[in-house]
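note to self: dont lose this again. the chain is below, predicted strucutre after it. 678 aa total, dont forget to put it in the shared folder this time
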Amino acid sequence: MNRLAGATSPYLLQHADNPADWWPWCDEAFAEAKRRDVPVLISVGYAACHWCHVMAHESFENEQVGALMNADFVSIKVDREERPDVDAVYMTATQAMTGQGGWPMTVFATPDGTPFFCGTYFPRANFVRLLQSVAAAWRDQREEVVRQGAAVVEAIGGAQAVGGPTAPLDAPLLDAAAAKLAGEYDATNGGFGGAPKFPPHMSLLFLLRHHQRTGDPRSLEIVRHTAEGMARGGIYDQLAGGFARYSVDGHWTVPHFEKMLYDNALLLRLYSQLWRLTGDPLARRVARDTARFLADELHRPGDGFASALDADTEGVEGLTYAWTPAQLVEVLGEDDGRFAADLFAVTEEGTFEHGMSVLRLARDVDDVAPETRVRWQQVVGRLLTARDTRPQPARDDKVVAAWNGLAITAIVEFQQVAALYASPQDEDANLMEGVTIVADGAMRDAAEHLASVHLVGGRLRRVSRGGVVGEPAGVLEDYGCVAEAFCALHQLTGEGRWLTLAGGLLDTALEHFAAPGGAFYDTADDAERLVTRPADPTDNATPSGRSALIAGLVAYAALTGETRYREAAEVALGTVAPIVGQHARFTGYAATVGEALLSGPYEIAVATDDPIGDPLVAAAHRHAPPGAVVVAGRPDQPGVPLLADRPLVDGRSAAYVCRGFVCQRPVTTVEELVAELG
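---
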């Protein structure tokens, strides 16, 4: 009997017809293991994971393997995106036992959930031998197995400890983090480290803010070079926009084709801020097309943003995306086919498998003659039309609260920057306006979905699907990312309810997630008890729960003037500070928020009758220091603390600039405002 048919997780549903007798994560599964006196096999993965699909096809869909699993184990299937707390506990155990981790993750545990053997992907023959060996060890060497499990739990308990050393995250530490990143920078290809190469969005956001604060040209150069390398590489979809999870090589050429919501949200923020600070046309184009990808490919009307597009199409990586020169000619004709092959580095030898190539941008298209740009755009449109007739990757359409929060914040920032550069004279002004309108609608839809579906009795739920909220409780990153998003939406709309919702989330987090010494656990004090309570301070693929919450606290404090939230943020940031200078690549979001606190952050209120078109508002956004909050609207607007007691000056719009709750006199000209923000 397979019990996954009623799951909300697309990943679990992929396994609903397996011969393996899967259970979802639940107390009943562990009770069944105890009743049968057998170990638990915990398999953790996610819907867009290529090697999860491979192991499923090789092993979990196999009748003989399923029979072995059913005979000697209670098998539990876990979606890591739905239950990040479960994933965190057992990934820490896997890394402690093997020195590495990844998905699919394969864990054998006692009936109380204590892990005693961990690994990742196993080919079928190896997996069969492993099942037989673990079953024999459970029967014949039970004492040793239980002792090993206890040692693992003790080890991972130490790894997740809180209450360690603290230090102020001050300018010297942030300067050291920037220097550390510069020392690890790949000057040839951009980014950090070698293959596989992941987009370092949070580190680059930090370096942008560091450049703003210090004027350091090296930080800006690292960001620009890496952003250009990624945007020209195969990791970026040259036809439809959007970034893949990572490149399998060190030069951004061949991606692992899954497209994750969180990567694209964070990269949209990066390219939007790079565009704001430099006016770079490449950053503008990539920000626009990434926003369009989020709105067109991941958003569903009346719902939030879906989690991902799959790495595979019909079990084959790259089937949708790769091309040969002959295929280009077939779609475009001889002349445009050769033009496209040269433009996108499509060769007879190929850059991928079987003579296929992943499209890269080998030539400039942002600063070229208008006729070349038109030809490029026409070629892109025709290729995309042809590609749309191919089989398409599956979509993981569950809505994850934290990742939707990241997307909302990113689209707000994109819209703010797009408004600065809006010009009817731009050759693609209509396209930019269309993308902005569609992205705005998707973003507001997602925010309403979080507020009405994911908030249940004042508490956040982690996931929903098809408008139905799931059972898993929200973890710390959900509270932090959604609170930050609601603060961003308050700034964009001037609506007080978003700020009220953000405050409620932050109050809940402060009450239920607090740990000794000002740190935070990743799970609430009334959440399901696991073998350890996770509290990871490091930023990895997404901001850590701690960094995300700190960001929300900082923004909320600046918008409301309530100092206790800022104080909580400063103390919590101090628990991360000791690792920032040494491990800058894994504390990028913490350092990004640290730059905001060091900057002030600035609180900018523009009292105006025209919050959209007022030049003071545009100047505030264009010249905003790191982490600044900007609110514009009529004085004393209900629910908007920054506009309270902030009147017009002699009937004219006025900008009020404060820094760390210390305010300057109001100014009425753009020149005066820019001087105060400088």
